[in-house]
Amino acid sequence: IAENSPTGSRFPLEGASDADIGANAQLSYTLSPSEHFSLDLQRSEEYRESLFLVLTKSLDRETIPVHRLVLTASDGGRPPLTGTVELVISVLDANDNTPQFNQSVYKVQLQESTEEGTLVARVNATDPDLGSNGEVTFSVSNTFPEKGLNVFHLNAKTGEIRLAGALDYEDIPSYEIQIEATDKGTPPLSGHCKVVVEVLDVNDNAPEVWVTSLSVPVSEDASVGTVVALLSVSDRDSGANGRVRCWVPSEHFSLDLQKSNERNLIPDLVLTKSLDRETIPVHRLVLTASDGGRPSLTGTMELVISVLDVNDNAPQFNQSVYNVVLPEDSLQRTLVARVNASDPDMGIYGEVIY
């Protein structure tokens, strides 16, 4: 009997026979106790009596695959005589069970440096039905974000999920994969689960330094404390991997970090010592930033600061006194001496007239 047979279904049984006559051959039937089956005996003067087994409660092969009942026939004699027969009822499977995952949510943590081909998770679903009704295949019904379709590969037969692409915590910190398990029954039934993959950060990003504002060239008479540049330093990693510090090795410039915090440095490049273009016309600064990862990663940037000249140098003669011997008969316009003065300033600041 199929397990999806509706209640009230009737199955004809072969009745008993009795060689006696009259009341001694008048038969009645009883069935051993069963919550699923009962008997129905139909008598007619015109036709031979008919005996039916009636289904009174829905069957479930997964609970009771075989029902064993005892059918007893009794005659009307005194004392009555009885005969028995065993009814062995095999329940035929129907596709009435959906595949069930052993977990509704699988949670996995992977470092973003995990190599492709690594086993991420193995999902498992069972179906108590028989044969093709209980054969389960797996498929991905949805991923969030969609990029996960190219990052993970699901084996339809084994339920193994392997890494098929590169992970990047800074790009996508977590994935949700919806898995569907489908049996091969007609019609097929499905169950669902979710795989949540948390990507763990590794220190794979060096700090970045860039200039948001730059005031160059800097006049050599600029006062100490002048802000020369506004900088920004950051690291895409998280936690200690993303905590940065920054410095610049220079006796003329330093970094003011008052507007900064450990996650986002916004230092000002400040003049800390008076400039002298005639001594150092161009300052080449190397800004260095490092993170708190192990091992630590470092980023650098070169900043070129030109010094703008001011007229801060007086002309200087190469001699303070020129001693000249001149014969008294020297003609007019005779060259007496050539004096020379120089000025280290630039342009018109350094042009000398006598």
TrEMBL record:
Residues 1-101, 102-209, 210-317 form the Cadherin domain. It is found in: Cell membrane. It comes from the Eukaryota. Pfam families: Cadherin. Keywords: Calcium, Cell adhesion, Cell membrane, Glycoprotein, Membrane, Repeat, Signal, Transmembrane, Transmembrane helix. Transmembrane segments: none annotated. This is PCDA1 protein. It comes from Lanius ludovicianus (Loggerhead shrike). The gene is Pcdha1_0.
